[in-house]
Amino acid sequence: MKRLALVASFCGITITQMMAQNINGEQISDTTLFDKFSKELGEVVVKAHLPQYKKTHEGLLTNVAGTVLSKMGTAEDVLKHVPSIVKKKDGYEVVGKGTPIIYINGRKMQDFSELDNIKSSDIKSVEVIQNPGATYDASVNAVIKIKTIKKKGEGFGFDTRSVYWYNKHDNTIQQVNMNYRHNGLNLFATYKFSDATWMQKASYEQAVHVDTLWQQHNNNEVTGRIESHRLISGFSYDFNANHSIGARYTLTSPGYSRSKDFFDSQVTADGKFYDYIKTDGLTVDKNNPSHQLNAYYNGTLGKTTIDLNTDLYFSTNRAYAYSDEQSQEHDSRNINSKNRVSNKMVATKLVITSPLLGGNLSYGAEYINTHRNDDYEVNRTDLLANSYSKLEEQTASPFIQYAHLTPIGNITAGLRYEYVRFKYYDAGIYQPEQSRSFRNLFPTISYGAKIGKVMAQLSYSVKTSRPSYSQLSNNVSYMNRFTRQTGNPYLDNETNHRVELSGVWKFIQFMVNYKDSRNAIIYWAEQMPGNEAITMISRKNVKSLKSMTAYISAAPKIGIWVPQINLGMQKPWFTLHTDVASYRLNRPIFMGNFNNAFSLPCSITLNVDYRYQSKGNTMNVYLAKEQHVLDVSISKSFLKDALTLEIKGNDLLYKCWDADLLYNQKMELLQVSKRGTRDLQLTLRYKFNTTRSKYKGTGAGNAELNRL
Question: What pLDDT is attached to residue 151?
């Protein structure tokens, strides 16, 4: 399910189930040049045992080793206390940038459970990159790099994780990670089983302003259960210090997935009773296992480094939906549909880094080939049409980036060129009007310097957000007799121009950026020609969405107490003209985090974290409720840190709301919903002879996978 990828959401609940999110991707490279730069600028150390912050050529580095952050518990706990990172229910956001990609020792993270398996005492540093350069995919808006302390050791090792949580239902995760190391050989395997239940209650107030004023009051309750299995296995081999190869295979097998949907609706026409409709729905997913393979070569020739990655991905998903719609005044309907989606992707990426004229030059290219088949069939062809679409996309992206340390500071400049060929087929017939080619340049430039005791960086970048493949499909799905949902094959890519100033002074960090999103993709609804009582939900491009984001963060230390305060604001500038009215959607959103870590005796760590979000506007939406989220956790280690027990309470106030008023062409929709975000969680971890992985595959086509 796609999320609203703006700072508007702190707890991970989306504006609607159909809102788009930022799309993420790609790779990271490190160079000794910028280590030198960081040293020359110096580290701003607040006092002993405090987190140490410094600006790098890419972003902001937080040193963890030897600080109070190393006593937080896990990598998940550490990230919550890194400035500009916001913890969500189902992941993380970087303030003003949306969902980041996360790398652990240069390897792209595959699953969030990996964070829970990394002890905070094993982390060396966390770097937040808010302006990724040309070596990253143009859709990557933020990157988090985690580096762990290098550990030596050979032989067999393993760690296990057992999680139980209760949210009116019993849920569990069981995971085991194993590895064997001997000389240059590293063999590893992971198995993860999860069985989780989710729920959501919502109310919808919908008004359609046509010749007849159609109004609906809807109540909705959804419960679902997902059971899944994941197996990861692979190897790496270091021929010597300069050359290594490796491969990793990931098998994901959803064993069970279904959701029940109860929906009742009271409908009026011009203020008079029209109908009462009660709907019972059932969705069952019967997906085949998905397969992903990564292979890499990493080498050094003289002073030149080579990073070559190839990725393959295959998946087939089947969804069966059953809807029994009982009408009090009109005809009842029974709608059955099935949707089969198959995806194939091949991607290759090469990055070469060499010293040049006292600086470092990185260059290379990435190629991605994607095929997607989307077949939709329904029993009521008098209401909906069967659809058989095929989408093909090829992307070729050469890039170059140069960084140089000058007497007045560090300058980094890069350029990425992307050629995209998109082909659309309807029922096997090529559609030239819906098929397009894109040729775009994405420049990035940044300047970093030390001004007094402040380390500052000024940057400009051009990025893109691409619609997902489901957003491009013209399949029309049935939601109820007044609502349909479809994609839009005519959607253009969104282009984001961003100027940003960031800096560090002692334990205080700040950032302010201005963004102009051109051809911005927004959630949209229009009335169906011939029957304006029916609303068609889709997406469209708008000419421009402008916004400014600012935040300031402070992380002092007071005895055993380490507080962190984050204050932020996002101010939009957007005027929406509809058939109903013109709306000035300019109200800012204010947000704040107050995280508190306590280092208690007997190796006990207590965390009390509070998050706030105000009302305000984002895109064509007004966020109509404040959010107040309180999380509390306590952990203790045993057996020389080999065994860890943790208890968490999430969203204890139960005020992580969605309350969103959406403005469309002739329709206004107010959605107020709440998911089962309040829960109690128990985690038990055990580690034996674990060492840092030697796997160096960074992956290719990472951004593309998020679109499938």
Answer: 66
Give SS3 for 640.
Answer: coil
Angle, vertex CA 326, rays to CA 323 and CA 331, nearest 5: 110
CA dist., res. 702 & res. 557, Å (int): 38
User: Which of 402, 309, 290 has the alpha carbon at shortest distance from 108?
Assistant: 309
How many angstroms separate the CA atoms of 106 and 80, rounded? 21
Tokens for 383?
A: 């209401």
Domain of 79, in residue numbers: 32-705
Hey, which bits of 555-666 come out as E strands?
561-573, 575-577, 582-584, 589-600, 604-613, 616-618, 621-623, 627-638, 643-650, 658-663
Task: Name the band, by pLDDT with cuts 50, 70 and 90, for residue 112.
Answer: confident
**How many CA atoms are closer than 13 Å to the CA of 371, on its beta-carbon side?**
7
Determine which helix (DSSP H) or strand (DSSP E) holds 192, and give its type and residue range: strand 185-209
- Give the span between the Cα atoms of 299 and 21, in whole angstroms: 36
pLDDT at 695: 61
In a domain, 1, yes or no: no
Does 170 reside within a domain?
yes
Q: What is the percentage of the chain residues whose pLDDT exceeds 90? A: 51
Task: Give percent of the chain with pLDDT exceeding 70.
Answer: 89
Determine the Cα angle at 505 with ends 504 and 511, to 5°. Answer: 40
Q: Which residue has the tokens 């790099």?
A: 145
Instruction: Note whether residue 110 is domain-resident.
Output: yes
CATH number at residue 239: 2.40.170.20
Longest C-alpha distance within the chain, in Å? 81
Distance CA 626, CA 628 (A): 7
CA distance 133 to 401: 7
Give yes or no for residue 44 having a pLDDT over 50: no
Q: Extract the tokens encoding 145.
A: 């790099």
Cβ atoms of residues 373 and 342 within 8 Å: yes
CA distance 539 to 64: 43
Say if 20 falls within a structural domain: no
- Predicted confidence (pLDDT) per residue in 305-335, tens digit: 999 999 999 999 999 999 999 999 999 999 9
pLDDT of residue 283: 92
Choice between 598 and 249, residue whose per-residue pLDDT is larger: 249
Question: Which residues, 6 or more positions from 249, have their beta carbon under 8 angstroms from its beta carbon?
Answer: 232, 233, 234, 291, 292, 293
Rounded to two decimals, the pTM is 0.83
Domains in the chain: how many in total?
Answer: 1
**3-state secondary structure labels for all residues of 306-344:** EEEEEEEEEEEEEEEEEEEEEECCCCCEEEEEEEEEEEE
Report whether 249 contacts 287 (CB < 8 A).
no
Q: pLDDT digits over 625-666, tens only?
A: 999 999 999 988 888 778 889 999 999 999 888 899 999 999
